[in-house]
């Protein structure tokens, strides 16, 4: 994979685009406090040493517990950590010196103790697990924001998510059916919120009628902003090098996912019998 | 799959447990209006005919656009519908007579026009797509709540989500790499919010140290509540019959997912070369 190189003009132009990016909040709704919290939320990577009180942390976990889920199956498990517990478990500090962390896992293993909802359907089962756990993650993220606590969701940095699934499976003794997806790192922000990362315009990510292929001009502009933003915040490394690390970890994660999803399963074996709606 | 049958005592006891279920909001945080909105959100299936204003709908979509995503890849596409547009597209009303709907898709197809981030890693690619799109879905759900708009996320009802992926792929001409996950149905609630569906206790869905197997007493109690809740709200059908329908649709969805994820791909072919950190 080769990335385009930016000349100085493209670099400066792209950085400016990032700095000028703002949420589109209709003026008629600008006084809605919760909407402001939701639209101004940012991924924060600089935390102060101020501790998160227990009641605040409990309320954040409660938002995970009460998140919506497909058929209310609650296919998730959360491992909450203090900074000391994270250090003891993983032999390193919480990334970005967060005060607390919640490792979020998709979990279809637990419900199997009473109900085998997805026999021979590993991908459907996995989809439900990932979908529900991600809904819970976002609910916790916004509950934290509502309480003045900032956070970042990590899937790779510091062995914290699904790109390190094999390592986390071994360390936390996770059975198959439990997949680590991401870690929500929490703390009080020690700096003003950073600019919005380069977001695609609404017209590019929506369609009416039938699917519309990407606009190459918009996509190249977006990629230039991504590269410029990375260069500006990581002067000592390159986006290209970072991508190489990702590619290696992605290959490892793919092998682990294929093993854990299809181990002991027959692919393409599924129920095709018409359901009997009179039954039961 | 056979479900336990509840006797009358178990049925009444389980219903009572549901009605008495409440969010655990620490008294010290009970005055936080934003937290209240997040923890009191419910899936709503009864909407009034009051229309959703355009500025409100635009702010909800903006929450989707600005959701966090892994490596900021924004692997999602949203198809927004008015009631008329939904009727014209699918030949039926929006489920539960919602006023607007947003079909939420995982989309790794768009970014491929400029960057092939996940060569030969279909499951990692799919995981990112499902995770990010679900984060966006929850962000939109809560932005709606913040604006007084209620909603429900549907994956099956009314051919609205990933259990109907093949149908939606054909109808909306979705290329492989674009996976319909769920529809967010939106409207103003016409009744008070329903009781909380039976939620597992926090102690059951969290662990410290290493993974802890499910408590069979708690899981059987939860399943009894699920069955009782279904019986109480669907007097004309049974949970068992509903499960049979799901099983059939799950089998179809599994076949479509396996086709679309692995079509033209070699399984277990992935990059295992150590990354060269000096490169780039």
Task: State the gist of this model.
With 280 residues, chain A is of the alpha+beta class. Chain A has a domain at 33-194: NADH Oxidase, CATH 3.40.109.10. The first copy, chain A, has helices spanning 8-20, 33-40, 54-65, 83-90, 122-146, 165-171, 202-205, 216-233, 239-262, and strands spanning 76-82, 100-107, 150-154, 178-187.
Please provide a written account of the structure:
2 copies of one chain form a homodimer. With 280 residues, chain A is an alpha+beta fold. The first copy, chain A, has a domain at 33-194: NADH Oxidase. In chain A, 42% of the residues lie in helices and 11% in strands. Chain A is built from 9 helices and 4 strands. The first copy, chain A, has a 4-stranded antiparallel beta sheet, with helices on both faces. In chain A, helix 3 packs antiparallel against helix 5 (122-146). The longest helix of chain A has 25 residues, at 122-146. The N and C termini of chain A lie far apart (54 Å). At the A-B interface, helix 2, helix 3, strand 1, helix 5 and strand 4 of A face helix 2, helix 3, strand 1, helix 5 and strand 4 of B.
